[in-house]
Design brief:
alpha+beta, five-stranded antiparallel β-sheet, four-stranded antiparallel β-sheet, about 20% helix, binds protoporphyrin IX containing FE
Length: about 400
């Protein structure tokens, strides 16, 4: 690393995000991992990997190498120091050379398979599995594809440049050769994120209006960060749920505007609750029309998902749209249709202090009653424990391996 770059890294370490003249550098070291309460970047590349080595030392070596590469890349550096030995593969593939850091964050998580897999405690970690780290139940309507679900380790790159996000995960996967291999991956994008702007999803609705505020430490302590109830290595960490949700866009696009608005319980253009005008007007679930019918339908998405309907449960949503092209379909029932349908939708990502009182609590109800279910199918996903932040000199999850010393 050159001296100017080292200086930048030091600033980023000391003072949160910094501007390198071309883009922001998000802090890598600190009490929490990046990419959770970071203002959403425009692109993501998320990957779940399976551990193929059964040696604990290999996992530790991998996490050490990942931490060092992630710290470098978050500052706009190559994954490893570049070499000049032309007889060797270059330590970095080079597609991010000369590009800014683009607010890259890398968020690491541990899947259930790190603790126990096929009944085997491969790494002597089973006793450290937190109580809150349950397996996700099967929800109503789930159509999860095994090859797009689960994983022993997760890493999510988020950046304001898709090439930077992919480069980062590609290099982490490269460092994992022989220890872990990619199980599945998902790209995503979102436009129109800003401190005072809510982005729209592919259904055309503002998505993120009623999210706990990322700049409110009290709300984050309450709903996102694991506190004293968790094991030491999870304190300051969080649990992430990923869901790959296909949306039947062809079907949705043929629905009348008022039906679309009833489905969500919000107006499409303003984002306000039905019957109101301001995007941030509070949701009044008791409001009724002249005939005494609820203005926000009983099965509207926001009614069922609201904290008031779930004993105060809240999660921090960080969803990205995805677009994976089209699939060929045949319908063998009238109208005997053959054609193409989009494989596009929402890569739903949410963080919470405890999945039992977060995603599981809220989604159990949505999966059963949400009007949106007519248009969406959950085809993949995972639940990962994202350890607390990384202090300089530490590697991600170090405290987990220390407390379970052999
Ligand atoms: C394709 C799938 C989904 C779409 C398109 C979608 C879209 C939306 C939209 C447009 C809103 C209203 C604006 C806002 O407050 O952000 C919303 C709110 C919300 N959604 Fe979803 N959502 C989806 C899936 C889910 C899932 C799987 C959950 C799981 C728990 C969820 C939880 C929530 C919550 C908690 C709110 C806030 C409710 C409130 O407090 O008003 N959503 N969603």
């Amino acid at each position: 690393m050159d001296t100017a770059a080292e200086a930048l890294v030091d600033v980023a370490r000391a003072s949160g995000s910094v501007d390198d003249g071309r883009s922001q550098i998000e802090p890598f070291w600190g009490p929490h991992q990046g990419g959770i309460t970071t203002l959403m970047q425009s692109h993501t590349y998320a990957a779940a990997l399976d551990l193929i080595s059964t040696k604990r030392e290999d996992v530790i070596r991998l996490l050490r190498a990942w931490t060092s590469a992630a710290a470098r890349m978050s500052c706009g550096q190559t994954a490893q120091a570049t070499g000049r030995d032309v007889a060797q593969p270059a330590p970095d593939s080079g597609e991010a050379l000369g590009l800014p850091a683009a607010r890259l964050t890398l968020t690491f998580g541990f899947g259930a398979g790190l603790f126990v897999k096929d009944g085997k405690d491969r790494f002597s970690l089973e006793a450290q599995r937190p109580q809150a780290f349950v397996d996700l139940p099967r929800f109503n309507g789930d159509e999860l594809i095994e090859t797009r679900t689960g994983g022993d380790l997760s890493v999510q790159a988020c950046a304001d440049d898709p090439q930077i996000a992919f480069h980062a995960v590609r290099h982490l996967a490269r460092l994992a050769y022989g220890v872990a291999q990619m199980r599945w991956a998902q790209t995503g994008f979102i436009s129109g994120v800003g401190p005072n702007q809510t982005p729209r999803n592919l259904m055309g609705f503002k998505d993120g209006t009623s999210n706990p505020a990322i700049n409110d430490p009290t709300a984050m302590e309450r709903f996102v960060w694991v506190g004293g109830e968790g094991p030491d290595w999870m304190r300051g960490g969080s649990y992430v749920v990923w869901r790959r949700i296909r949306i039947a866009l062809e079907h949705w696009d043929r629905m009348p505007l008022d039906f679309q608005e009833q489905t969500f319980g919000r107006h499409k253009y303003s984002g306000s609750p039905l019957g109101l005008e301001g995007e941030f007007d509070p949701l009044d679930l008791n409001a009724v029309d002249r005939d005494g019918n609820p203005i926000i339908p009983e099965s509207a998405h926001v009614r069922l998902a609201a904290a008031a309907s779930n004993e105060g449960a809240q999660i921090l949503r960080r969803p990205y749209s995805y677009n994976d092209g089209v699939n060929f379909i045949t319908e063998r029932w009238p109208p005997w249709r053959q054609g193409m349908e989009y494989d596009a939708g929402l890569f739903f990502v949410c963080y919470q202090r405890d999945p039992r009182t977060g995603f599981i609590k809220i989604f159990d109800k949505l999966a059963k009653f949400d009007m949106l279910n007519q248009f969406v199918t959950h085809t993949g996903g995972g639940l990962f424990a994202c350890p607390g932040g990384i202090a300089q000199g530490e590697f991600v999850g170090q405290r987990l391996f220390e407390t379970s010393r052999l």
